[in-house]
Amino acid sequence: MIEYLTSHFSIITLGLLSSLAAGLATGAGSLPIFFIKDFPKKILDALLGFAAGVMLAATSFSLIIPAIEAAGGGIRGAGITLIGILGGGIFLDMVDKFFPDTNLSLGPSQNHNNLRKAWLFITAITIHNFPEGLAVGVGFGDGNISNGISLAIAIGLQNMPEGLACALPLIREKVPVWKAFLAALATGLVEPIGGLLGVGIVQVARPLLPFTLAFAAGAMLFVISHEIIPETQRDKSSKLATHSLLIGFVIMMFLDNVLG
């Protein structure tokens, strides 16, 4: 499959299409709202935990390790990767200061501010999805198609429960189902922009590859640690979410090696 893709599509096209597919997964994840009006929090926590494990594995094996190798290994490789990871984390931390409200209770509505909070949550998720698209683009940018595919799969799987989490609060505030679906879908449509930027930067300035890989890894780690994992550890289903994280990690580790 890898040979077919490389012979029929350019790296830029693959990066754009893969980040678009990952972004569209937010809409796919919200589809259950057309059939189920009240989704159990326990199931959502398990899905988010699984997605966190998948993203951790993809970050480790498709971003951090390739960054060290691309920088030549040793102290130099580790140093460049360290700076890139910290840079990506600090960048997302700065973004989070402007859009801090990315954790929204999925419980019943309790006050008139919930609809405003729901839209703020969706806006924040949209902003935070940009570096995920960037990570996919960077993964493709060095010409390693398997890395890019692994990242696109990981982020797409994470986007599915995230899309559901975006749509449910709107449904609970009596927003029409189709509007809630479109809102969830829209949160992922910034990812192709990030993907195009990521693959473009690496193609134009290849010496920046190790740093951009590590930067994307830092951004991913911030999202996982600051947003996804805490959301799954708020109630009695926290252990289920932890088990799901481990399962997601080992499955993605296996897939990454098979694709590689």
UniProtKB/TrEMBL annotation:
GO molecular function: zinc ion transmembrane transporter activity
Subcellular location: Cell membrane
Transmembrane segments: 12-35, 47-68, 74-95, 180-202, 208-228, 240-259
Mode of membrane association: Multi-pass membrane protein
Family designation: Belongs to the ZIP transporter (TC 2.A.5) family.
Entry-linked InterPro entries: ZIP
A GO cellular component annotation in the UniProt record: plasma membrane
Keywords from the UniProt entry: Cell membrane, Membrane, Transmembrane, Transmembrane helix, Zinc
Protein name per the record: ZIP family metal transporter
Domain of life: Bacteria
